[in-house]
Amino acid sequence: MLENTKLLRRSIIHFFIFALIMSGCSGGGAVTLTPQSVDVQGVTAIDVGWGHACAITSAGGAKCWGSNSSGQLGNGTRIGGSTPVDVSGLSSGVTAIAAGLHHTCARITPGGAKCWGYGGYGYLGDGQQRGTPQVDHLTPVFVKHLLPDAGGT
Prior knowledge:
single chain; about 150 residues; 1 helix; globular; disordered N terminus; 4-stranded antiparallel sheet; mainly beta; about 45% strand
C-alpha cells in the first residue's frame, strides 16, 4: 500500500502502472514495460496486482482499473480498461485493499472482508474448495468466517 503522505495530499495523483506486453513468447521473446498514467482523485491507498490496480478513495470507496478477465475490477463485468471504475457496493467503508493475481480483497467497516474476481483454489474465502467447479465473482462477496457478526454464514 502507498504510505507516502506527501503524495496523498495531492488532489490528483498520477500513478504509473507498468503493463507487461509479451511479444514473441516462443523462443525467448522480449518483454517491454509500457508506463500508463491513470488519474485518480482523492486517493488514500493503492495496491497493484498482476494486471490490475485498486485504490481507496478519501470517501472510503474502492476503485479499480486494468485487466478484468476474472472480474477482478469488481464492477459486474469482465471488461477491463485504463479508467478507474467503482467497485460494486463499495462506495464507502473500505479500510484496506489488496490486489492479487486475478482477484481483489478489501477490509470493510464495521468489520469483515469482501473479495471478488477469480474464484479458484479458495482465493475469495467464500468456501469454494480445490477440485470443485470454479465460480468467479464479478462483484464483492463476504469472506466466510470474517463477517461483521463473526457468524461465518
